Each structure stands twice: as structure tokens, then as C-alpha cells.
Amino acid sequence: MSEVVLIGAGFVADLYMRSFALYPEVKIRAVWDRDPARLEAFCTHWSVPAASSLEAALTEGSAGCIVLNLTNPASHFDVSTAALTAGHHVYSEKPLGLSMAQAQALHDQAADAGLLLSSAPCSVLGEAAQTLIKAVRDEVCGIPRLVYAELDDGFIPQARYGDWLSDSGAPWPARDEFEVGCTLEHAGYYLTWLIAAFGPVARVVAASAAVIPDKEGNPETPDVSVATLFFASGMVARLTCSIVAPHDHQIRVIGDAGVIELKQAWDNDAKPRFRKRVTIRRRLMELPVGRKLKIAGPTHPKVKRWGAAAMNFALGPMEMLEAIEAGRPCRLSSDFALHLNEVTLAIQNAGDTSGAQDMQTRCDAMEPMPWAR
Ligand SMILES: NC(=O)c1ccc[n+]([C@@H]2O[C@H](COP(=O)([O-])OP(=O)(O)OC[C@H]3O[C@@H](n4cnc5c(N)ncnc54)[C@H](O)[C@@H]3O)[C@@H](O)[C@H]2O)c1
Distance between CA 263 and CA 360 in Å, rounded? Predict the structure, then answer.
């Protein structure tokens, strides 16, 4: 029996419970949330045991079990520190830390204690990501030269997010999401895939901005970011995150022989396609209909779509449990989590000056054509 202690029983915790339903061998040993009403609603809904405090939850779990830190980002550091101090492996929701100092301290504490420390997202272990990464590895598109990846969520401040409730009734935490920002919240969904496919990032040239200042939370948190990632392997990728531009979760790996593309980031079951590059009557183009790429044989249990996602949130914790049992390295290592944190913060905090060049020339705004006024 594999044991898990869950800290933070909010919106995402319900998605984890839906995913853990696929793994009857996992026992939820204890749940803690500092909001008593939330704790009760969650534990009643899922019939899982509520702890009386964080300390009680941590002593409830047997030594070396996994603590899932599903609290808000501002609590990640304190809760993960407490769980590691209590001798438990930690799987933290993203980001691992709000600063590199926090993330590094957690990384070092886990290393000193011989404990595993992983961070979400874990969709990189899912079928869609692994199929795409395998296709890159197999050079289905020839030598890959460039990646374009988008994590645009639509104009979220105008969405009816007040109506978004989780299974056990937790409201979508709009204020916290806006305050933390879409880059810290979402860049990892493709950064993990890119780092898994191309290795570590050597340099980030990025810009970020708050273009909708009147939303809830901190008006200065960027709601758009664009990054060019230079990988140590020589690969180059562009990654865009926003809660402003129309929904677009496309990733395209452009190679010498064509393009591998996938339209959904948050669906483990989405199928990447390969569009071969051809010349038809002197016109160079990628074929309009791509060939579906699939992995032969079974992959992993999948959850049904709920809201915007069809992701198995348990893939990360299960990877940890299996690594512990087999005594093998965990794919979601603490080095991976730390690097992910560094790249994400570099993009989020880029502002408008990172690698910027001030323009010396100016011009007037252009008059529209007379027929276009
Ligand atoms: N909302 C989503 O769709 C979603 C999806 C994937 C990942 N995440 C991530 O999951 C994490 C949680 O997000 P959420 O949407 O569930 O937020 P939420 O606000 O709905 O839930 C967080 C819960 O943690 C509790 N909490 C905060 N600090 C605590 C502490 N120190 N001790 C005990 N309990 C504490 C809060 O009371 C709250 O119930 C974030 O890191 C977020 O990035 C969210």
C-alpha cells in the first residue's frame, strides 16, 4: 500500500482525487487545510481522514511517505520545508518556490536528508508529451531546428470564473491565480516537455508585462510573457504565456523534414501529428493534414475531461512512489524541479528590460487608408 498525505484541499486537490481514483493501491493517509470549512467539505466529499493540524498530518504519514503540497504558491515553501523536516518525500504543486532562494533551500534540504523532491506539472510523463518527445528523438521531423509553443488561455479576466467550482465546491482561486501570474502558473506545462526533449536551458531572453492592470490581485504581475529559450544542446524555442490572447495551446517542433504539432497541452490523450514538408507545383508547404503519431501498446491510466483539462494529476506522485519502491532515480528529480523554477522565474521576472535594446528612432502613427477609416 502506498501512502500519501495531502496538504491543501482546494480546487486542484479535487483533480488529484479524481486521478488517484485510478490507483486503488494508493491510500490517502491524512488531509490538512488551514481553512476548516474547506477541510471539512473536502474530506466529507471524498471520505478521507481530516487531520487536526499540519503537524498531526505529517505524523499521520508513515516515515518516507509522500506529502503532496497542494497549497497556494505563497505557502509552498513553508509547507514543503515542514514536510521534508518531518522526513517525508515531497511532491509540490508549481512553482516549487516563489524565489530561487526558496527553491534552492528546498532542493538542498531534500538532498541532505536523502529525500525526493518533485514539482508539478507532471503532464510531461503523460502519453501526449511522451509521444511527441519520442517522435523528436526518432527524428520523425528530421533534425529539429526550432519550437514554437503557446500557452495562451483566452481573456480570462472577462471569463465567468466566479462560476468555476471544483467537485467538492472550492471556487477557482482567481485572485491568487492573477497575483501569482500565468507564467508561474502555466509556463511549466511546456517547459517540462521542452527540457525533457532538449535538455537544460542555457539562456533565456524574455519579456513580460501586465497589460490588464485592473484585474484582481497584484496589478503588476505579468499577464503576458514571451521567451526565447536557448538550450545548452543548441536547440531554440519560443514560448508564449498569457491570459489575454485567444486560447491557443499549440506546440510545433519544426524540423528539416516537416513539423510535429499538437494542439492541446492539457490532454494526456491528445495525438501529435506530423506534417511532412513537400513542394507542390513549386510551392513549399507542410501537408495540410498530418499523420497521427501513436505509441504502440498501453501507456497509462487516463482521466475523463473535467473543465479545461484531461490530465492525470497522479502521474507525478506515482512516478515518485515507483522510483522509491524500485530504488531508481525519479524522472521528476529535484534538479529538474530547480531548473524548471529558474527558467520560469527568468521569464516571469523579465519585465521590459531583459536583453532589451532602446530604440533611438521614432515615427508617427500611420494614418489609415481612406477606405479603412
Ligand atoms: N486551479 C487549478 O486549476 C490548478 C491546476 C493545476 C495546478 N494548480 C496549482 O495548485 C496549487 C493550489 O491551487 P488551487 O487552485 O487548488 O488553490 P486553492 O486556493 O483552491 O486551494 C489551496 C488550498 O490550500 C490551502 N492552504 C494554503 N496555505 C496553506 C497552509 N499553509 N496550510 C494549509 N493549507 C493551506 C488553502 O486554504 C486552500 O484551501 C497552486 O500551486 C496552483 O498553481 C492549480
Answer: 39
From its phi and psi, is residue 58 left (phi > 0), alpha (psi between -120 and 50) or beta?
Answer: alpha
Domains in the chain with CATH codes: 2-119 (3.40.50.720), 123-305+334-348 (3.30.360.10)
DSSP H stretches of helix in 187-314: 188-198
- With a CB cutoff of 8 Å and minimum separation 6, the contacts of 172 are 11, 161, 164, 165, 166
pLDDT tens for residues 231-266?
999 999 999 999 999 999 999 999 999 999 999 999
**Whether residue 95 has a cis bond before it, omega within 30° of 0:** yes
First to last CA, the chain: 70
Instruction: Provide the whole-model pTM.
Output: 0.96
Distance from Cα 269 to the centre of ligand 1, integer Å: 25
Question: pLDDT (tens digit, 9 = 90+) per residue, 267-290?
Answer: 999 999 999 999 999 999 999 999
Q: How many CB atoms lie within 10 A of CB 328?
A: 9
CA dihedral (272, 223, 119, 32) positive or negative: negative
In sequence order, the β-bridge partners of residue 231 are 201
Atom of ligand 1 nearest to the CA of 93: 41
Give the Å distance between the CA of 306 and the centre of ligand 1: 17
- Residue 96, C-beta contacts closer than 8 angstroms, at least 6 positions apart: 76, 80, 102, 103, 106, 107, 117, 119, 337, 338, 340, 341
Contact status, residue 29 vs residue 5, Cβ threshold 8 Å: yes
Torsion of CA 329, 334, 340, 346, to 10 degrees: -150
Q: Which residues contact 223 (CB under 8 A, 6 or more apart)?
A: 157, 178, 181, 182, 209, 210, 211, 212, 215, 242, 243, 244
Q: Report the amino acid identity of residue 163.
A: D
CB distance 121 to 107 below 8 Å: no
Give the residue-averaged pLDDT of 96-122. 97
Nearest CA to ligand 1 atom 38: 10
